[in-house]
Amino acid sequence: MTRPTIVAGNWKMNGSVAMAENLTEEIAAGAKDSKAKLIICPPFPYLDAVVRTLGDSEIHVGGQNLADQPDAGAYTGEVSGAMLRDIGCWYAIVGHSERRSLYGESSEAVAIKFGLARDAGLVPILCVGETLEQRESGQMEAVLKAQLTAVIDMHGVDALQDAILAYEPVWAIGTGKTASPEQAQQAHAFLREQVAAQNATIANVLPILYGGSVKPGNAPELFAQTDVDGGLIGGASLKAEDFLGIASAAS
Ligand code: PGA
Fold first, then answer.
1. Which tens digit of pLDDT belongs to each residue from 6-48?
2. Catalytic residue among 60, 130, 168, 188
């Protein structure tokens, strides 16, 4: 099974209008022959600038989060899936470890957002990953399974049909410490097996991205792993050269 390589950039809380426009222009100009499918996830206030700058480019845009409410209403500070879709997004990251750890999002809350993203016509990019402590105490598989199962239990395995999974070991995010290709492959294979146990067809086509200190230098080896279908890139997505360098690791 060959799955397309996807490289998504998560800018986190960084940027300005000028930076968003410049970076997007540089990425779009350099990505013309990219073999990877590229996604840019800027902060909400810059979505419009990124969407407009991209024009009819094949690069797509995603939100970094969305509200846990289906309908418009009195939810101060929140942005709904419908609004993201309205402004030109096709994707939404859900369950990033920073949302889980800093903003207290439980796996159940993440599963609700996952469903709402789909309902709004967005492809959810579901992040899962263990902390160093969990890995060192042998709980990695249990943690990944619980985070994934929360979504499957709420929406059924079929909901993974038009979704993207991202394995992001918390200890590798923004730390410069990358999972080795073998560690990534092992976790990705485990995640795919969990899905395959319920639906082998969906498991086969499900893109599983690796995230955590991906750089142009380590991307080729990571992306060469059987079950690694691209990357979710934080820090290195803020520099066109690095993001494009990572994208060029797609075969
Ligand atoms: P990083 O972040 O590439 O800066 O480690 C990855 C992420 O949080 O998605």
1. 999 999 999 999 999 999 999 999 998 899 999 999 999 999 9
2. 168
Q: How far is the CA of 234 from the centre of ligand 1 (A)?
A: 3
Domains identified in the chain and CATH numbers: 5-250 (3.20.20.70)
Give the distance (Å) from ligand 1 centre to CA of residue 232: 7
Q: Which atom of ligand 1 is nearest to the CA of 172?
A: 5
User: Do residues 70 and 41 make contact, with C-beta atoms less than 8 angstroms apart?
Assistant: no
Sequence length of the chain is 251
Instruction: Determine whether 188 is an active site residue.
Output: no
* DSSP β-bridge partners for residue 38: 7
Q: What are phi and psi of 185, to 5 degrees?
A: -60, -40
Contacts of 74 (CB under 8 A, 6+ apart): none
Phi, psi of 225 (to 5 degrees): -70, 145
